[in-house]
Amino acid sequence: MSHCENTTIEKYYCKNCNFQTELSTIFKQHLETHLTKKQTLSHEEYSVRNYVCGKCTFETHSCINLLQHSIHCWSSTEKKGSVRYSCHQCEHKYKDLHSLRKHTILKHLNTNEIMWHHCTKCPYKAKLKTYLKFHMSCQHSNENDIKWHECQKCPFKAKQSSNLRKHVNAYHLDEREVKWYECEKCPYKAKLSSNLRKHAAAQHLGAKKNPKQKVHTTWYKCKKCPFKVKYKSSLKRHINAHHLDENEVTWYECKHCPYKAKQSSNLKNHINSHHLKEEDVKWYKCESCPFKAKHKSSVNRHVSVQHVDEKDVVWYECRQCPYKAKRVSYLKNHVRIRHLDDHDAKWYGCDQCPYKAKEKAYLKKHINAHHFNKK
C-alpha cells in the first residue's frame, strides 16, 4: 500500500529446515512440528518487525491482516480512485485495496498459506471463491439452468456477464469508444488488460527497468513434448491442438465450407478471411504506412518488425547460431525448424504424398502448389 513505505515485508525463516512464510500463525504451527512435548515455544523465536498502517496506529505480523485493515481505514480518509496502491513485492499498482489483496493472494502467497476453495464434484481447487463459482458455473451447471448473457449484435453468448463485456469491447465498439491498454515499451496496444499483460510477459520479460530485479516466471510444461509456455490456458490449447485423439477434440466447424478448427479463434479468423464480404470486413490499418490487415495481430507484427527504431528493438537471440529476431515467436519457429532434432520435431505429413514439414504453413503451401484441385 502506498504511504506505508516504512514497512517492508519480512518472512519467517525456520532454522531447522527450508520452510518460510509471511504469516506468523502458520510459522508458529510449523515450528511446533520440530518441538518435543516438553518444549515450549518462546515469542522471540518467531517474532519479526510488525507491518504498520500509515494512517493510524494499527500494526500486525500479517500482511493479509494489514490489507484487510487498510480497506476500511483508507476508504474512510481517501477519495475513491485518488490513490494507487503498490505491491511491496513487485511493481504492480492498483486503484483499490481489494484488487491489491486479490493480487497478493494469487501471486505472492505460498501454497501452504492459501485458504483453498475446493470443488465438491471434481479435484479442482481455487485460490479465490469467485474462481470456484466461475468453475462451478462453467463445468457443473446443467445447460437448462444456465442464465446465458447474449450479445445483441452477434450470436455470441457467455455464462459470465464480464465475458460478455469483454466480447463487446473487443469486437463491437468503435475505435474511438475503446479504452486502449498501451504497452510502455513498444507501439502495441490491446483492448483487454489481460492481453497487454500477456504481451508484456511474452515480448518484454527480459527488458526490465531495473536489471538487478529478479523476474520469476512460472513455466507450464507439456508432459508429452518439450513445449512450455507462461500461461496455463496456452498449454491447454497446445494439448488440444497436438496431443488429443481425433475423437477427443472439440471441433469448431465452419457453416460455409468444410473447414473445421480445434480453436474457436482460428474459426473466427477463417470466417473473417474467407467468408466476409469486402464491405463487411473490418480492416486494421497501420498508422505509418498503407499496410492494412484483417487481423489486428497482423498489424502489431508488422509495426514491431517495420516501424520500431533499431535502438528500441528488444532482440531475441538464438543460442545456437547468430540468428536473432524481433519477435519471440519468430525465434521459436527458427529453433524448431533449424535446431530441433528430427525425432523431437512434430511433423505435418501430406496425406497424398510422402512430403512432410515441421511447419503447418509449409504443408499448406505444398498442398496448394501440388495437390489443389487435383483428382
UniProtKB/TrEMBL annotation:
PROSITE patterns to which the protein is assigned, alphabetical: ZINC_FINGER_C2H2_1, ZINC_FINGER_C2H2_2
GO biological process terms on file: segmentation
Domain C2H2-type: 149-177, 181-209, 220-248, 252-280, 284-312, 316-344, 348-375
Gene Ontology terms for molecular function: DNA binding; zinc ion binding
UniProt entry tagged with the keyword Lipid biosynthesis: no
Keyword Signal among UniProt keywords: no
Membrane-spanning intervals of the chain: none
Matching SUPFAM superfamilies: beta-beta-alpha zinc fingers (SSF57667)
GO cellular component: nucleus
Subcellular location, record wording: Nucleus
Tree of life domain: Eukaryota
SMART domains (alphabetical): ZnF_C2H2
Predominant location category: nucleus
Keywords: Developmental protein, DNA-binding, Gap protein, Metal-binding, Nucleus, Repeat, Zinc, Zinc-finger
Free-text function comment from the UniProt entry: Gap class segmentation protein that controls development of head structures.
Annotated family: Belongs to the hunchback C2H2-type zinc-finger protein family.
Name of the protein in its database record: Protein hunchback
Organism in which the protein naturally occurs: Zophobas morio
